[in-house]
Amino acid sequence: MALLSVNNLSISFGGLKAVSDLNLELYKNDLAGLIGPNGAGKTTVFNMLTGVYLPTSGDILLDGKSIVGLKPYQINQRGIARTFQNIRLFSDLTVIDNLKIAFHSHSKYGLLGAICRLPGFYSGEREIHERSMELLRIFNLDHKWDELAKNLPYGEQRRLEIARAMATQPRLLLLDEPAAGMNPQETQDLMNLIRWIRNEFDLTILLIEHDMSLVMGVCEKIYVLDYGQIIALGTPDEIKNNRRVIEAYLGEEAS
Ligand SMILES: Nc1ncnc2c1ncn2[C@@H]1O[C@H](COP(=O)(O)OP(=O)(O)OP(=O)(O)O)[C@@H](O)[C@H]1O
């Protein structure tokens, strides 16, 4: 069974049909891309998958069960995490606190345990600290654990955002333009990191990206969206050579 099945998903804003009859399937361990021109509807798809927008029609199944109508935090608890096009860290908190907050959203001892400092709270806190440091090591941010998030260089803020999404222990990770604003070396490092976390954490990843070197270098299948509709699905080579995609998005120089 597909991990994620999107069936005939549509959303309208007033008279504008931003996404129209979208069908998409992701299987465990897929590393897929969602590309298309500005305004094609890519972020709107992520917003529907994560419960930010309620689709006008259609269904989204996670493990065969509909998640339409659930709140974003409920969808996150079911295993979908995301990052945002414009970074949304807690900029006045430290690097490690940004991760701890995400771990807390899945902690077992609950609010009462935290307020009353029940025994489970202290062991839980220790575990969260250790697991946060472990994630920071993976994302090569452990030496910055005590810095305020806002003081990190841009590329590191992007990595921290992915680490924070990972702290909610997703099975499906949605990355919205993870390479935006990165230099070529940072983009290359990010590609390696994305591949590595997919394998290491047994993840499924769907990413939106305009940087074609990243999309073509890392994605195994690619969906192309234009005016809210899927116009192509294929491997990087198939997409690069697809006439409709070249006309709508890539341009002749890509072929
Ligand atoms: N809340 C909203 N209200 C009205 N229109 C919206 C809303 N959200 C998105 N849209 C419209 O839906 C369309 C798709 O926008 P979306 O941001 O999903 O595109 P995108 O493919 O992610 O673009 P980009 O690559 O520039 O980020 C656009 O015309 C946008 O203006």
TrEMBL record:
GO terms for biological process: D-alanine transmembrane transport; L-alanine transport; L-isoleucine import across plasma membrane; L-valine import across plasma membrane. One of its GO terms (molecular function) is ATP hydrolysis activity. It is an enzyme of class 3 (hydrolase). Residues 4-252 form the ABC transporter domain. Its EC number is 3.6.3.25. Pfam families: ABC_tran, BCA_ABC_TP_C. PANTHER family: AMINO ACID ABC TRANSPORTER ATP-BINDING PROTEIN, CONSERVED COMPONENT OF ABC TRANSPORTER FOR NATURAL AMINO ACIDS-RELATED. This is Sulfate-transporting ATPase. It comes from Desulfotomaculum nigrificans (strain DSM 14880 / VKM B-2319 / CO-1-SRB) (Desulfotomaculum carboxydivorans). The lineage of its organism: Bacteria, Bacillati, Bacillota, Clostridia, Eubacteriales.
